[in-house]
Recover the amino acids of this structure.
């Protein structure tokens, strides 16, 4: 399978909009043409060739080497193929992507997967605020797709999320799942204040009890949630990465809320994992 | 043609196109999954009056079910997608959902689907929750035992109904013995069911009747008590005729089930009362799928 490799020559001084560089846009182009592609760089535009060493053949795979947090909008509007990044990326990773897969070997900035409509984003490090959220002014956040983050995330994870799943192995900040419309968020480490604040529907699945739960969430008690058996079994079929979940559940403490907004959402705190 | 001394008639079974779905029922253990499955397949022997024909296909291991619990697959056949769409929510709602700890999933991936949880969700009275997991939509319906999980739709595929063979025996007791062995053998074939009680039909029918309001009536040519009255297909030694009807997902699986079923029935032989094997057909007028006994037994 053909892979195009873009190796960053040196860390740029300004933000670099990487949205023209997605697999389906460069597929079939030769290296000379790819080097001529213009990127928005601060207030200017700059050609790919002046910032990147280009090698390989453009196809389904695109690889960015020596990346840094100045690269923004990586994988924006991506609808197919595989984009892998060696290094950090800036804000708006995978914005509005509809399909395909993005793998980041490093950290990501804020607004990861914002307005995402499908596909998958894997981040080996941490991510900033507003992961899976909508852009300011949007009614909805991500709508389908999976975001997997091995590290920690900032505040407002899944703000206004509509569908899909966000899986965080590390910690999450405050206001996780705020204003959620639906979808599923899984946090395996500790979580900040006000999880699910103003959520309408959706599930926030926590491995550890949060420091603070708003008064507008009511306890339904410890329950065997049969849905968790299904959820964990299905996740293990998506990826071996989720296999460990099969041994957990279905016992969870269920909190229903946010009652200030109809209360059809839920916080599920896994009991078996908490005891472990 | 003879197998173990049993005469195989030079005839064919006539089957017809149907629509089928497969439903997976899981529960806390197999005992409760069976209770739900047995209720689901109740009164589902023949489309003549039941709307659907259904039976348990097989037990499923925890690795084979969507939620990792023990399960059972049930196959349901009907004459049309519309009839399946009418029967599935009613049957699942009244039998599976009412059984403690159960969940219900589609066991067939197909572009054509009929509603399952999509209709049943309303039982949740507004408290139901939808979850899209691994590309499939499931409904979580709060119920008194906890939560009833049901997949939104189940896949429907083209299928074949009415594959059959007749076991002509000296007595009903001897015929049942051979049929039980045949049905046990047929259960090992994937994608087929025998929907009648115990897999055996004691009152096989012909199409039509002298009464205009009746679409099916007794097959008098195979009734032992009418041997001297009508043009009978039975010799003097035959005292009981039992029929095994097989529905399957394709011709190959129906033919395979007929083959191993007939061989199993013939293993008893004439000394144990099995005299002949025949098949039910309507001169090729009922359906396009013809299973010639001598060909499938080659």
């Amino acid at each position: 399978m053909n892979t195009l490799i873009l190796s960053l020559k040196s860390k740029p001084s300004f933000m670099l909009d990487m949205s023209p560089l997605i697999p389906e846009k460069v597929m079939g182009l030769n290296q000379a043409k790819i080097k001529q592609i213009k990127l928005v760089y601060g207030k200017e535009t700059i050609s790919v060739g002046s910032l990147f060493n280009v090698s390989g053949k453009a196809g389904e795979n695109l690889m960015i080497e020596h990346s840094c947090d100045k690269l923004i909008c990586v994988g924006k509007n991506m609808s197919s193929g595989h984009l892998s990044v060696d290094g950090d990326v800036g804000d708006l990773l995978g914005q509005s992507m509809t399909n395909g897969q993005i793998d980041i070997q490093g950290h990501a900035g804020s607004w990861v997967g914002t307005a995402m409509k499908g596909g998958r984003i894997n981040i080996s490090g941490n991510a900033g605020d507003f992961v899976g959220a909508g852009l300011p002014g949007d009614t909805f956040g991500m709508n389908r797709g999976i975001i997997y983050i091995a590290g920690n995330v900032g505040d407002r994870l899944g703000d206004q999320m509509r569908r899909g799943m966000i899986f965080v192995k590390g910690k999450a900040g405050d206001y996780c799942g705020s204003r959620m419309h639906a979808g599923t968020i899984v946090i395996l480490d500790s979580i900040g204040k006000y999880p699910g604040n103003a959520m309408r529907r959706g599930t926030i699945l926590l491995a550890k009890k949060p420091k603070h739960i708003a008064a507008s969430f009511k306890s339904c008690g410890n329950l065997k949630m049969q849905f968790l058996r299904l959820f964990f079994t299905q996740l293990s079929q998506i990826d071996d990465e989720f296999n460990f979940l099969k041994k957990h559940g279905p016992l969870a403490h269920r909190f229903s809320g946010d009652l200030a907004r109809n209360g059809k959402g839920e916080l599920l705190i896994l009991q078996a994992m908490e005891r472990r | 043609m003879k197998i173990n001394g049993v005469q195989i008639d030079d005839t064919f079974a006539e089957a017809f196109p149907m629509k089928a779905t497969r439903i997976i029922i899981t529960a806390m253990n197999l005992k409760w999954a069976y209770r739900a499955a047995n209720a689901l397949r109740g009164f589902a022997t023949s489309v003549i009056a039941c709307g659907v024909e259904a039976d348990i296909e097989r037990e499923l291991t925890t690795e084979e079910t969507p939620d990792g619990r023990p399960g059972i697959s049930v196959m349901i056949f009907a004459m049309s997608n519309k009839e399946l769409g009418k029967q599935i929510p009613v049957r699942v709602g009244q039998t599976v959902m009412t059984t403690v700890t159960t969940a219900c999933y589609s066991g067939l991936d197909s572009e054509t689907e009929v509603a399952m949880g999509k209709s049943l969700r309303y039982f949740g009275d507004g408290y139901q929750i939808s979850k899209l997991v691994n590309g499939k939509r499931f409904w979580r319906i709060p119920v008194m035992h906890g939560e009833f999980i049901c997949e939104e739709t189940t896949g429907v595929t083209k299928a074949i109904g009415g594959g059959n063979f007749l076991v002509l025996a000296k007595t009903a007791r001897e015929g049942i013995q051979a049929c039980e062995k045949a049905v046990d053998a047929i259960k090992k074939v994937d994608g087929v069911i025998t929907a009648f009680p115990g897999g055996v039909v004691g009152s096989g029918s012909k199409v039509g009747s002298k009464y205009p309001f009746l679409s099916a009536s007794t097959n008098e040519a195979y009734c032992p008590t009418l041997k001297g009255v009508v043009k009978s297909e039975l010799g003097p030694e035959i005292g009981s005729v039992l029929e095994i009807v097989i529905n399957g997902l394709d011709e190959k699986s129906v033919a395979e089930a007929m083959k191993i079923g007939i061989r199993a029935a013939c293993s008893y032989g004439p000394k144990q009362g099995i005299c002949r094997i025949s098949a039910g057909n309507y001169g090729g007028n009922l359906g396009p799928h013809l299973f010639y006994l001598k060909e499938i037994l080659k």
User: Anything to note?
Assistant: The mean pLDDT of chain A is 93. Chain A has five helices and 17 strands. The helical segments of chain A are 23-26, 31-36, 48-51, 226-238, 271-275.
